[in-house]
């Protein structure tokens, strides 16, 4: 069997890695543990980034992996994965009180 040489540019490699990471995140994002991690990521982004679009992007991604626009309902029951997401958000805030205080201080200074 003859070996075939495949030439890839840096852009090709970047695209392959990016697509692979997206696939892994998509698979992980629709699990309770993944939702908890996404909640923590959302909290971290809110505390350290003033760009609301970045906050919204993470939230919408997690929402989509919970089941779309009706993330809070599955049939007539509440979606338990939303609670995993919220727990991850709260856990991050609880474990990073200094970041929370600094974020509040930055926002208060800006509003004065």
| Major sheet summary line | 2 strands, antiparallel
Task: Report the uncertain regions.
Answer: none
Q: Estimate the strand proportion.
A: under 5%
Mean pLDDT: 82
Q: What is the domain tally? A: 1
Strand order of the largest sheet: 1-2
| DSSP summary: helix tally | 5
- The Cα radius of gyration reads 19 Å
> How many E strands?
2
In whole angstroms, the N-to-C terminal distance is 72 Å
Secondary structure class reads mainly alpha
Helix content: over 70%
- Topology pattern, helix = H, strand = E: HHHEEHH
Query: Could you say which overall geometry the principal axes of the C-alpha atoms support?
Result: extended
What does this entry look like structurally?
With 112 residues, the protein is mainly alpha-helical. It is built from 5 helices and 2 strands. Strand 1 (73-74) and strand 2 (77-78) form a beta hairpin. The chain starts with 9 loop residues before the first helix and ends with a helix. The mean pLDDT is 82.
Layout of strands and helices, then pairs:
Blueprint: H1 10-29, H2 32-48, H3 52-66, E1 73-74, E2 77-78, H4 80-95, H5 97-111
Antiparallel strand pairs: 1-2
Helix pairs in contact: 2-3, 2-4
Give a short summary of the structure.
It contains 5 helices and 2 strands, in the order H-H-H-E-E-H-H. With 112 residues, it is mainly α.
């Amino acid at each position: 069997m003859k070996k075939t040489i495949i030439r890839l540019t840096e852009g090709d490699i970047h695209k392959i890695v990016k697509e692979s990471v997206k696939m892994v995140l998509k698979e992980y994002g629709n699990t309770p543990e993944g939702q908890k991690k996404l909640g923590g990521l959302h909290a971290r982004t809110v505390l350290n980034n003033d760009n609301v679009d970045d906050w919204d992007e993470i939230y919408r991604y997690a929402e989509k992996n919970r089941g779309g626009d009706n993330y809070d309902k599955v049939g007539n029951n509440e979606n338990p994965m939303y609670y995993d997401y919220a727990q991850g958000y709260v856990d991050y805030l609880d474990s990073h009180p200094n970041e929370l205080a600094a974020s509040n201080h930055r926002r208060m200074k800006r509003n004065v």
